[in-house]
Amino acid sequence: MLDAKIPAGPLDKKWENYKGHCKLVNPANKRSLEVIIVGTGLAGASAAASLGELGYKVKAFCFQDSARRAHSIAAQGGINAAKNYQNDGDSVYRLFYDTVKGGDYRAREANVHRLAEVSGNIIDQCVAQGVPFAREYGGLLSNRSFGGTQVQRTFYAAGQTGQQLLLGAYSALERQVALGNVKLYARHEMLDIVTIDGKARGIIARNLITGELERHFGHAVIIASGGYGNVFYLSTNAMGSNVTAAWKATRKGAYFGNPCFTQIHPTCIPVSGDHQSKLTLMSESLRNDGRIWVPRKKDDNRKPNDIPEDERDYYLERRYPAFGNLVPRDVASRAAKERCDAGYGVGSSKQAVYLDYAAAIQRYGKIEAGKRGLESPTAEQVRQLGMEVVAEKYGNLFEMYEKITGENPYQVPMRIYPAVHYTMGGLWVDYELMTSVPGLYALGEANFSDHGANRLGASALMQGLADGYFVIPYTIGNYLADEIRTKPIPTDHPAFEEAEKQVKDNIARLMGIQGTKSVDHFHKRLGKIMWDKCGMARNEQGLKQAIEEIKALRAEFWKEVRIPGAAGEFNPELEKAGRVADFLELGELMCIDALERRESCGGHFREESQTEDGEALRDDANFSYVAAWEYKGDSNYVVHKEPLVFEECKPTQRSYK
After folding, report:
1. Is pLDDT above 90 for 500?
2. Smallest Cα–Cα separation from 228: which of 273, 272, 262?
3. Is 577 exposed, middle or buried (0-12, 13-18, 19+ CB in 10 A)?
4. What range(s) does the FAD-dependent oxidoreductase 2 FAD-binding domain occupy (predicted)?
5. Domain boundary at 397, 419, 441, which?
6. Is residue 69 annotated as part of the catalytic site, yes or no?
7. Is the pTM of this model over 0.90?
8. Counted domains in the chain
9. Is 195 helix (H, G, I), strand (E, B) or coil?
10. 137-188 confidence digits (pLDDT tens)
11. Domain end (from 367, 399, 419)
C-alpha cells in the first residue's frame, strides 16, 4: 500500500490542521539548507521565489535561455478560483466538486480540496504582483466560463493569461536572484538524480552551451518540469517540452502515477500535413462564446456561411443540453471525433468541426448598441460593435488563427479538431507533494496529483501556482526540519561520481551509434503509434500491438539513430536524442498502464468499456485507485495501487446532459 500521508480530520480542515502542526525551520537554519528546483515555469518559478523569500538557498534550472520561455506562457484562457464575484453560486466546495467530477473520480479528494481552498489566495497574490487581469466596468476582476462548470470562475488576461502570470512569478523569482537567495542556471538540463542513503541529494546537469556535465548538491530536489504530451510528437506543447527530468527520477526509484491519463484538447487548429512539427491550441475560452457545429449532411462541401441554420448540427448543445459547448474537454473531444468518423467532418481533411462566433458577435453587438443608446442600429453597425467586443476579449487568439490559416475568423467559422495537450499522469506524490523517494518532490504538471483522469480548463495554472506559492513552502519545511544537521555533501562523493559516470556513458553510447536515421524520424514514428493506438480511443488489441511496436522501435533507435556533432559542445540533436530515448520508454509504460486499466474514465477511453450512447463507462469496483508504476529495468515495471476513498464526492456516472 502507498502511504499518501493524508491528514486526519474533516476534509475542509485537513490543510488548516496540517499547517498548524507541521514542523518549521527557523530563519537561521533556512540559510544553511539548499534546495534544487528543476523547471522554472509557473510551478518552479513560484516555488523558487517563495523558498528564496523564506531564506532557503535555492538553485533553479531551466533548459531555456530564460525562465520567461517556460511553456506556462502558452496557457491562454485563464485561471480558476472560487471567488464567487458573480454571485452565481460558486464556492470552495463547488470548485472542489467540479474538479473531482471533471476528473471522473480518479483524483485524491484531500489534494483537490486543498487546491480549491488556496485558489482565492492565488488571485490575490497575482494582483499584488501586477498581473493585468481583465476587469469589469466598475473595476472588479472579470470572470468567464470554462468547460465542466456552470459558474463563471475563470480569471483571465485577454488571451495571454499564462504569459502574464509567468511574468508575475518571474518577477518574484528575479527579485530573489538579485538578493542572492536564488541562483538561476539557464540552458542547463537535468540528466540524473543523485541519491545518498535513499534520499535525493542532488542532480547531474548538462550545460547545453558548452556540453559540460555539472554536479549540484541539494538537501532536497523539486521536479517542476511540466508534462509529457510530446511523446505523441504532434501536440500543443512547446517542441522542447519533454519527460526527461521526471523519467530520470522514475529510473532512480520515484513511482510514475497514471501515465495513460493524457488529455486531448478539443479546440486546436487541425493538422495540415506531414510537414508539421507541432499543433497550435486555440484557447478553451473560445468555447465560452463560440458555438460548435457540423453540417447535418455527410460530406457537405459547401462553405460554412452558405449552410443555412436548419442544416447545421450543434451537436454538443444537442447531446449535452445542460452544459452545451462547455462540457469537459474529454467529452467534447470524443464528440468531435465521433462526428468526423461518421462522415460529418469539414475542411479538406474532413478531420475538423466548426467553431462559430457569428451568434456571439450579434449578441455582443446588440448589447453594445443598447449601451450607446442606438435605438435602430443597422445590421452592419451591430456587427462592427460586436466584433469590437470580441476583439477585446479574444483578439490575439483570432489574430493567431488568421496568421496560421489565412482565414478571418470574424467572417468565417474557425476549424478545430482535438489534439494532445495536457498530461494528468506524472510522478506519484503524497499529500506533501513528495515522491516515493524521500527528499524528492514534484510540482505542477510533473506530478499526477489533482486532476484525476481529466483536467478541467483553467486548472493547470491554478495547480502550478498553488503548489509553488502555497503548498511546498509548508510541506518541504516539514521534511527539511529534520535535515538541519546535514552538512552540504561535497560533490566528489562517490554517489555523484557514479551518477555522472552513468550520464557520460549514456551520452557516449548515443554518440557512438552513428546510424543513418535522424532523431525526428524515430520521434514521428513513436508519435504515430501512440496517437493511433493510445490516443483518443484505446482497445486491448491495439495496445498490445503498440507495446510490441514500441519495443521494436526502441531497439532500432539504439542501432540506427544518427547524432551529428560532438558531446562536448552545443548540440541540439544530442538533447533531442536523450529526450526521445526517454519518450520511447515512457510510451511503452503508457500503453502498459492503459492496457491494465480495463475501464474508461476521463481522457482514458477503452472502447470495450462504454455506455450504450458512447460515453465513458467507469469500473469503480475494480479501478478506483491510482496506478503508481515502479521501474525495475528495461520493459519491467511493478504497479503499486493507492486506493481512492471518496467521502464527500460520491462517484456517480458522470453526466453533463
Report:
1. yes
2. 262
3. buried
4. 35-461
5. 419
6. no
7. yes
8. 2
9. strand
10. 888 999 998 888 889 999 999 889 999 999 999 999 999 999 999 999 999 9
11. 419
